[in-house]
Each structure stands twice: as structure tokens, then as C-alpha cells.
Amino acid sequence: MSPIPGSGLAKGLAVTLRTMTKKTVTAQYPDAQPELPPRSRGVIGLFEENCTVCMLCARECPDWCIYIDSHKETVPAAAPGGRERSRNVLDRFAIDFSLCMYCGICIEVCPFDALFWSPEFEYAETDIHELTHERDKLRDWMWTVPAPPALDPGAEEPKEIAAARKTAEKLAAAQAQAAPLPDPTDPPQGGAS
Ligand code: SF4
Ligand code: SF4
Q1: Which residue puts its alpha carbon closest to atom 7 of ligand 1?
Q2: Which structural domain range is residue 88 located in?
Q3: Is residue 99 part of a domain?
Q4: How far apart are the C-alpha atoms of 130 and 123, rounded to whole Å?
């Protein structure tokens, strides 16, 4: 059966009439910035102070886009008669974001909390080589990583915070013991002359 002449036009006009009064959903980026959830996968930040160069992230990355170079350094014995130790020193840490598929595996597997998601996403380049972010750039992204969400009120105190608090309490107690007691015969300080 052939369609009624003009029915297509009527359908089109009906859609226009139905939607013309609705609020527009088109975001005028970059004039209007999107409101992203704080944990969005924008770019990866490296907290290199935590990195032990264990290479786990580079080995697990499905795209092989994490490049790490390091060398070994000998640390002298902490006490006389002790043994020297060796440790890895990071020389290069880079991520090629032109290959990265934002799976987050590197962040999940890092045993030392050295990699974090940042919601920053505006790092497009005209030269693909610029998408390989080296160590310093990855370190700078750490400034854009949002603070972790607050703990549940009934949650156990994190081990690191508990240890730091105990150390601070011990130090304060030691300082209070070491401080000389005030002499009761001394004139009061700061009085009117
Ligand atoms: S997010 Fe995935 S693809 Fe990207 S660097 Fe990490 S492991 Fe590799
Ligand atoms: S898994 Fe973590 S600690 Fe190990 S090399 Fe990667 S970033 Fe460094």
C-alpha cells in the first residue's frame, strides 16, 4: 500500500512540535564544561615517591603502553656490621595515552598506591608523540587527583593514620617529660611593669 502523500512531512512536523518546547540537551563544549563525576577516568597521575619500580603495572598493562627504566643502587648498612642492601631507582616512567584504553588495570594492580585517576581530560595534542606523558607530567597530574571520599563514620581507622597518630602521641609525651617544670618562685611572665 502506498503511503498517503504528505504523511512523512506531517510526521516530521509532529516530532518538531513535540521537541521544540523541551529543554535542550546539547552541551556547548568547550564553552560549557561538563560536570564529571569526581572519579572519572581522565588521565593517570603518578605519585612517584610511592613507586618501588616493581614493574607490575607495566607487565599487566594490556596495551604495553607503560615504559619504565630503572637502575639498582646499593644502600650502605644501617648499622655497623649490617648488610648492604640494593634498591631500584626510577629513571623513566611514561605512559603513552595514544595507546592507553583507560582500563585502569595498572591502577588496580599497583601494590604501593603510586597510580591514581584524575578527572582531567583536556590534554589533546596535534602531535601524537606528545601523548606520551613522561614522569614529570605524570607527577603534575597528581595535583588534579581529588581527595579520597570521607570514611564511613563507623569505619576502622586506617592503619597508616593510626600509626602516625600513635607516633605523634609518643613524641608529644616525650617532649612533655623532657620540658623543665616551672619554678613556683619565678615571677609570672608577661605581667604589667
Ligand atoms: S589504564 Fe590500562 S591501558 Fe592504560 S596504561 Fe593503565 S593498564 Fe595500560
Ligand atoms: S605497580 Fe606501582 S610501584 Fe610497581 S612500578 Fe608500577 S607504579 Fe611503580
Answers
A1: 61
A2: 28-142
A3: yes
A4: 9
**pLDDT tens for each residue of 25-63:** 888 899 999 888 878 999 999 999 999 999 999 999 999
User: What count of residues does the chain have?
Assistant: 193
Indicate the number of domains in the chain.
1
112 CA from centroid of ligand 2 (Å): 7
The answer, as to whether pTM is greater than 0.85, is no
What are 99-152's pLDDT values in tens digits?
Answer: 999 999 999 999 999 999 999 999 999 999 999 999 999 999 999 999 988 888
Q: Looking at ligand 2, which atom is closest to the CA of residue 68?
A: 5
Would you say residue 187 has pLDDT above 70?
Answer: no
Tell me, yes or no, whether 189 lies in a domain. Answer: no
* Domain-located, residue 22: no
- Report whether residue 104 contacts ligand 1, using a CB cutoff of 6 Å: yes
Q: Please provide residue 143's backbone torsions phi and psi, each rounded to the nearest 5 degrees.
A: -65, -15
51 lines ligand 2 (CB under 6 A): yes
Helical ranges in the chain per DSSP H? 7-19, 56-60, 105-109, 135-141, 159-178
Cβ of 101 closer than 6 Å to ligand 1, yes or no, is yes
